[in-house]
Amino acid sequence: MRLDAGLVFLSDSRTNAGMDQVGTFRKMTVYENPGDRVLVLMTSGNLSISQGVREHVSSWVGIDGASIWNAPNMLAAVRIVGDAVRSIHQRDAEALAEFGVDFNISIIFGGQIKGERCRLFSIYSAGNFIESHDQTPYFQIGESKYGKPILDRVITPQTALDEAAKCALISMDSTLRSNISVGLPLDLLVYEADSLAVTRFTTIDEHNQYFQMLRSSWGAQLKAVFEGIADPVWDAAPGTTDNVLCAANGKVAPLRVPVPAAINRNAVSAPLQSVAQDFNTGHADPHA
């Protein structure tokens, strides 16, 4: 999240290559030179590609001496990350394709370099990127659909950092509950604008007191809010009550499939007799 007050980063640590190949690998990498820059890189997708890109970014030095450690601004830094993705693609993509493996990586990259504001980018497999602005103050990569609704309802550029961290954890908990490809522990980094140092970071496992409180209280309060919403009223006369879902005179009907003619003929035939008959007497079998 990119907020007026700073940045919030949250990642899980589960990777899988099938149900029986589940592992734990940290997906957040921090490039910090206190007083000069704090840069955070988070990845999803193919683990070998992600690790290759991360190591390339960490060690790459251009012919002019440029690197992630001396990039003059965030735009120059994100271009280095994009170039790293293209470099790994050039090196590995063809060989991976021969084994039926797609070149799959997504990256969130953000931070602050002294002399400019906090910035946040989403980088794609082609090495191209987009930047977060006030209309879209957050990015998600990986499994995002379960945790997205609360972010859309709560997060604005004016959201306070601790409120944003709380929202991020609730969002992640929604994903943890609905998708087994996401798992603990979590890495949470909250960066205060212009601090140019990492001062708030934690790794959250199943024993973390705050996270356990958050997920239990959120579930209970969500249920309470749900139960406090009125049930729908069916077939009500117009103007007689509130919460009308379907009016008595509402001209609505489902899309019905016509009953086949043969079924209609059977419906008006003689009443059905018991299928369990005694073949010798013609009487119904009492044990059927």
Please characterize this protein's 3D structure.
The protein is α+β, with helices and mostly antiparallel strands and 288 residues long. It has a single domain, classed as Glutamine Phosphoribosylpyrophosphate, subunit 1, domain 1 (4-Layer Sandwich), CATH 3.60.20. It has six helices and 13 strands. The strands form four sheets. Strands 5-6-7-8-9 form a five-stranded antiparallel sheet, with helices on one face. It has a four-stranded antiparallel sheet with strand order 1-2-10-11, with helices on one face. Helix 1 (47-59) crosses helix 2 (74-98) and helix 3 runs antiparallel to helix 4. The longest helix is centred in the N-terminal third of the chain and has 25 residues, at 74-98. It starts with a strand and ends in a 21-residue tail after the last helix. 27% of the residues are buried. The model has no long low-confidence stretch (mean pLDDT 91).
Brief rundown of the structure:
The chain has 288 residues and is an alpha+beta fold. It has a single domain, classed as Aminohydrolase, N-terminal nucleophile (Ntn) domain (Glutamine Phosphoribosylpyrophosphate, subunit 1, domain 1). It contains 6 helices and 13 strands.
| Share of helical residues | 25-40%
Question: Can you say what the CATH homologous superfamily is?
Answer: Aminohydrolase, N-terminal nucleophile (Ntn) domain
H/I helix tally: 6
Low-confidence segments, ≥5 residues, pLDDT <50? none
Q: Work out the radius of gyration.
A: 29 Å
Q: Sketch the topology as an H/E string, one letter per element.
A: EEEEEEHHEEEHHEEHEEH
* Structure summary, number of beta strands: 13
- What is the percentage of strand-forming residues? 15-25%
- Give the biggest sheet: 5 strands, antiparallel
| CATH architecture descriptor name | 4-Layer Sandwich
Query: What is the name of the CATH class?
Result: Alpha Beta
Global outline: globular
Mean pLDDT: 91
**What is the CATH T-level topology?**
Glutamine Phosphoribosylpyrophosphate, subunit 1, domain 1
| Total separate domains | 1
Strand order of the largest sheet: 5-6-7-8-9
Termini gap:
68 Å
Give the helix/strand class. Answer: alpha+beta
